[in-house]
Design brief:
Blueprint: H1 7-21, E1 26-31, H2 38-46, E2 51-55, H3 62-77, H4 79-82, H5 92-101, E3 108-113, H6 125-135, E4 142-148, H7 151-158, E5 170-173, H8 179-182, H9 191-201, H10 205-210, H11 217-224, H12 231-241, H13 250-258, H14 264-271, H15 276-284, E6 288-291, E7 303-306, H16 309-318, H17 322-336, H18 338-362, E8 370-377, E9 381-389, E10 392-400, H19 408-418, E11 430-435, H20 441-444, E12 449-452, H21 454-458
Parallel strand pairs: 1-4, 1-5, 2-3, 3-4, 10-11, 11-12
Antiparallel strand pairs: 6-7, 8-9, 9-10
Helix pairs in contact: 5-6, 9-16, 9-18, 13-14, 16-18
Length: 459
C-alpha cells in the first residue's frame, strides 16, 4: 500500500505510536476535507498494529453507533475480546474506558473516523473524550485517533471553547497537495499537461490517480468531468456537503467568485445576499483565501478567491451545466465552456508561478528576505508576481498561459506597469515571465529579463 507525499504526517503518527507503546497514552486529531487522503493514510498507518478502525455513519443514532463500535472491536480484535466486549455500550464514556482497559499491557491503536458524526446524537462527544482522557487514561498503551472531514466542526472541537482544546498531543490538518508535491502522482506527464491535470483535479489524491498519463487532457476531461457520473463532476458536492449547509448561501458566494467577482461588494451583488458570515465561514474552513496587494500604493481592499483549485474548476466550468452533462450532452458542454476552462488554467498557472518564485527565494536566486505576492491598483494596473525586499521591488513578473511566444511588446507593457511601484533598490529590478510559449529572440537577450516555462515550475 503506497502512500505518496505524506512523509511528515506518517512521521508524526509513528512518533506518537512509539510514545503510546512505551506507556505514554497519545490522543491524536487528524482532519481535513473529504478526498485528501486521511482514511488512506490512517489505514496504512494501522497496518501491522493491534488496532480497531471504526468509521461513524451519517444520521445514525447514538445507540446504533455504539453497537457498531462494539461489533468492530469483536471483529478486528477477535478472540482476545470475544468474552469481554459487550453487545453494545451504554455510552461513549463506557466505550472509551473499555478500550483503555484492554490497552494496559499491550499497545492498542483506536481510530474513530468521521468523529463529528458522533456529535449528531451526542453533542458533548468531545467533552466526553476529554473527561475520559483526563480521569481514566493514565499509563495505558493506548493511541486514540479522532479523524474528520467536517473541517469547521473539528477546528471548533480543538478551539478555545472546544472540548479537545489543548488536549491532543498531535493535531494535524491535511489539505490537498500543492502543485509541486502533486507532481509525484503523475511524474511522466509533460509539464504543461500536468499543470492542466492539476487545474482540473486539484491536489486530491483520488482525482490525480484517476487521471491517465496515456490519454490527452481532452480525453481525461471527457471521461472524468463531461461523462454522466464522472468523478470530477460528482465529487465537489460531496466534499462541500460534509462541512457546509447549502441553506447558508455558500454555493451562491462560491459561484460568484468562480465567475470573476473578487471584491466583497461585487461578490455580495452577484450572490444577492449579505455575505459577512458566509465569507468568514468559508475562509476559516479553507475554501476561500483573502489576498491583499503586497507593499504600499496598491488597492486597500482585499480580493477573495476560491482557494481549492478543483472546487474552483467545478464552480467555474461544471456546476451550471451539471444537469446537461448528466443528460448526455457533455461533449457539447465541453466545447461551450472551453473559454472558461482556459481562464481557470491561467489562474492556476499564475498561482503556480508565485509558488515557484518563493522557491527561487529559498534557493538563493533572489535575496533571502524577499517576500512574494501580487499587486494591483484600482483594477487598472495589476502585477501577477511581485517580489519586495523591504519596501523596494526586486522582481516584477507576468504570467501568460498562451501558446505563442512573448515579445518585446510584452516587456514594454510590464515595464509601464512597474512604473507604478516604488523605486527599486540599488541591485535593480528583474523582470520575469512565466510563459507556456516561451519568448521570441527579441526578448530572450535582455540581461534584466528571466523566462520560466511549465518545466521550471513543476521541476
Amino acid at each position: 500500500m503506497e502512500v505518496i507525499g505524506r512523509a511528515v504526517e506518517l512521521a508524526e503518527l509513528d512518533a506518537a505510536w512509539e510514545r503510546a507503546a512505551s506507556g505514554a497514552p497519545e490522543l491524536a486529531v487528524v482532519w481535513g476535507r473529504r478526498r485528501v487522503g486521511k482514511t488512506y493514510l490512517l489505514t496504512h498507518f494501522a497496518e501491522g498494529k493491534r488496532s480497531v478502525y471504526f468509521t461513524a455513519a451519517r444520521q445514525d443514532t447514538d445507540e446504533r453507533q455504539l453497537q457498531r463500535f462494539a461489533d468492530a472491536l469483536r471483529e478486528q480484535l477477535g478472540d482476545e475480546v470475544a468474552d469481554l466486549a459487550p453487545a453494545s455500550f451504554p455510552t461513549w464514556e463506557a466505550a472509551l474506558r473499555f478500550v483503555g482497559g484492554i490497552a494496559r499491557t499491550e499497545p492498542l491503536l483506536v481510530v474513530l473516523d468521521e468523529a463529528p458524526r458522533l456529535m449528531s446524537g451526542h453533542a458533548d462527544f468531545a467533552d466526553t473524550v476529554s473527561a475520559v482522557w483526563e480521569n481514566h487514561i493514565r499509563s495505558q498503551k493506548l493511541m486514540l485517533v479522532l479523524s474528520g472531514s467536517a473541517v469547521a466542526v473539528m477546528e471548533q472541537m480543538l478551539g478555545p471553547q472546544g472540548g479537545l482544546h489543548r488536549r491532543a498531543g498531535l493535531e494535524r490538518r491535511m489539505d490537498p497537495f500543492p502543485l509541486i508535491d502533486a507532481r509525484a502522482f503523475l511524474p511522466d506527464l509533460p509539464p504543461g499537461d500536468f499543470i492542466q491535470a492539476y487545474a482540473a483535479c486539484g491536489g486530491y489524491p483520488l482525482h490525480l490517480r484517476r487521471w491517465s498519463a496515456r490519454r490527452s487532457t481532452e480525453e481525461n476531461l471527457e471521461e472524468l468531468a463531461f461523462t454522466p457520473g464522472g468523478l470530477l463532476l460528482r465529487d465537489a458536492p460531496d466534499i462541500l456537503s460534509e462541512d457546509l449547509d447549502w441553506r447558508g448561501g455558500y454555493e451562491r458566494v462560491l459561484t460568484a467568485m468562480a465567475g470573476g467577482a473578487r471584491r466583497r461588494s461585487r461578490i455580495a451583488g452577484r450572490a444577492q445576499q449579505r455575505i459577512d458570515y458566509t465569507l468568514d465561514r468559508l475562509r476559516r474552513a479553507g475554501y476561500v483565501r483573502t489576498v491583499r496587494a503586497l507593499g504600499t500604493g496598491g488597492a486597500p481592499d482585499p480580493y477573495y478567491e476560491i482557494a481549492d483549485d478543483y472546487l474552483a474548476y467545478w464552480f467555474a466550468v461544471l456546476r451550471d451545466d451539471a444537469d446537461l452533462i448528466d443528460g448526455g450532452q457533455g461533449p457539447a458542454v465541453r466545447q461551450r465552456t472551453s473559454g472558461r476552462w482556459q481562464t481557470h488554467v491561467a489562474r492556476v498557472f499564475e498561482e503556480a508561478a508565485r509558488q515557484h518564485a518563493q522557491r527561487l527565494v529559498a534557493a538563493g536566486a533572489l535575496p533571502q528576505d524577499t517576500i512574494i505576492g501580487r499587486w494591483w491598483k484600482d483594477e487598472t494596473v495589476e502585477i501577477d508576481v511581485l517580489g519586495l525586499t523591504g519596501d523596494r521591488p526586486v522582481l516584477v513578473g507576468e504570467c501568460r498561459w498562451q501558446a505563442r511566444p512573448l515579445t518585446q511588446r510584452d516587456l514594454g507593457d510590464l515595464r509601464r506597469r512597474a512604473a507604478h511601484l516604488p523605486e527599486p533598490g540599488p541591485a535593480g529590478l528583474t523582470f520575469a515571465f512565466w510563459s507556456r510559449g516561451g519568448v521570441d529572440e527579441t526578448l530572450a537577450g535582455h540581461p534584466d529579463v528571466r523566462v520560466f516555462t511549465p518545466a521550471d515550475i513543476v521541476g
